[in-house]
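Two quick folds needed for the group meeting slides. Do the first one here.
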Amino acid sequence: MLAFIVVFITQGLGHTLMVLVEQFFGSGYQYQAAFILGLIGALLLFIGMKNENEVPATWLGYFAGFCLWTGWIEFSFVFYAEYLNVEQILPDGRLNPYPEYLVMQSSIGVLMVSLLYFFFNRETKCNFFRWFQRNLKLSTGRPTAGYKRNYAAITAMETVYVIWFFYIVLLLLYEDAFVGDQHPLTYIFFFLNTVWALFLMFRLSKFWNVTRAIRYAIPTAIIAYSSYEIIGRWGLLVEFWVYPKEYLSELLMIFGAISLGILIAVITPEGEKQRLSEEQRQQD
């Protein structure tokens, strides 16, 4: 479950990172800083794709996707919202402080069309996609024999697309013109999404293969974080991630703990991981 905790918390730290970039570099240099952050993601992806070791390649892929999403994708929406002077008057008369989310909503067409490639891809190992392929007769053929997957690339793309997909879903639910955060449909989504996340967490706890567990934990944690986001939207908790100045010590402790957890996961010898996996499988 370490991977789940790491991914879940880094979703919040992603908000912290955006706020810090905006506050530290200001409007004059935040986009240059975001571009560099994206370059770091690209570098991590390159290193991960060359790495033959599955565990570090998977982690490098995740953090590559995380940096690419925050640096090149999310900040691009911020840039064009500012460049195009996008504004929205909310029902209470205030201006929407996050016009970039309006721009992001317009990417739904690109998201759905590009997802078709992954949905119909016969090489996919995604249980969600394979369920539809199997039960709705949507398979496009048998997987290619001997096909070698690149775990860093797969993990990076999975990270970007799962974050993107749930961003769009939540933004459409929050939009008063479509649904609204107090609409019954939002409550239904929250309930179903939470049940889904708990089911995936239960399945994750049964995994004995370490590397598969890491890749399974990434979408599981992002799905669970979506329910957490809705709770924050309802005002039931303080999203301290976006207040780094007020919660600096807490965020530093969280960052330190997560960094230590990742370090332990990466430096643990592969044989030891296999032994622990076998012990867990025998207990199950």
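Then this one, please, same format:
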Amino acid sequence: MRVNLFPQRRDDTLSVVRDGSILTLNGEVFDFSRMSDGDTLPMNAFNDGWFMGDVDKKDGELSLTLILPLPYNYSQAQAFPLPLLNVPDGPVVLPQPLPSDQPEVEQEPWPARQGVIDWTKLITRAEKEAQAAADRLALAKAELSARNATAAAQIDRITDRVETLGYGIDAGEATAEDEAEQATLIVSMKAWKAYKFALGKVTTKEGWYDSPAWPVEPPIPEIVADPMLVADETT
């Protein structure tokens, strides 16, 4: 078990006892034996005020954060507590305050009572994996949509210029440079159409959606009559 400590100035005290997957805080018993590896209990699953953060179980080890009350004579060890690692069964040794000239008041035994855990808030490993998969799918879909939009925009842009140059060629007014530009753009347009077609196959290939096999995007042609907007590198 790993116990992280969150220091907080307050005058009450905290007693912690571990018994396997059971943690007793000031007599209040919290049984975490229902947790499986990879599960998480969020902070709002507890009505007790000592938990500060989620309770996780990873590689068979429970990890949690508890508030560490700081008395008026708190020590540096209490103010900047180190994590308690490999906490054994029995009373958990917490950082101690500085010596005090006030008489020590002996703490009476805490009455045993059952701590309340709202198990409906448990996030299982399977639920985490399902959510992570859904997030990866959403990202892949967004990337595919963006790539398709770019391809469609380039095809429209190139097609418009090819057709415009064709008007001049049909009218016998185009120059040799115009004809050369059209020929080059036709090659570019074919490449962009092939790219867009390949994008339509991405979801059917192995690796979708965890590692999509994206086709290589063709170069964006420079069209003087229809320049692409480029961000000012000086800004």
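Slide caption for protein two: The chain has two domains: 2-91+105-123, 130-204.
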